[in-house]
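For concreteness, we quote verbatim a single protein encoded this way:
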Amino acid sequence: MATNYNKLLILFAVVFYCTELTYSWLKYNSYTTRKRTDLKRRCPNVRALRNFDLEAMMGFWHIIQYYASTEELPEYACMHSHFTFSSDDHHITMNFTYIFAEDPMKEQLQGNITWQIPDFSTPAHWMHTEDIYEGIYNTYVLDTDYKAWGLIMHCAEKKKHPRYLSALLLSREPQLGDNVINFLREKLPRYDIDLSFMFSINQSSCDNLIENSGDNNLAYTLNGRTNTEDILKIMLKQ
């Protein structure tokens, strides 16, 4: 009788320990189980940054944190952006590069977004020019000091679909202080952004990336090398 009682105590202790361990893991990784509450229909009302200096915002940025209403897991690393402004057509272009964090080849992918400024009295509000975006697609610079950090947010509305909302936390350097990161993150919940889905983007080991040529998925340029023999030798060493 005592032996069975001891076995029950041991079983209870094991179950209790496993339950506590599982609860702690799920609490830490809340995005894996918790139902999203940020999938709204309409874009929030946003007031873009006042007294915005467009030219000072241009140039190279590291994207050190990223939020998107369509994504529930951290997927990216080495994400960078470069903003330019054309005085000819008054368009803003962001060329961006990134890799998938789990890609062992570290293939660098690239893309671009182009905006126009609908009202130059509020130059921190941009509208996308691409025809592929259905309905309203606005971008707002929420805050920046131009020299070190910035925060921008995109929102698109589509018929019969939840809005698409994303936010980029920018830094001129690969690292940014925790106090600044927290200061910028705290600006997002007012727009119904769930910060548990605002993921950090690793900016380390971003020098030796394989660049996708864009013409052929099997053709790569590694670190600016264009000699096929050199590329093949380097790839075979990995």
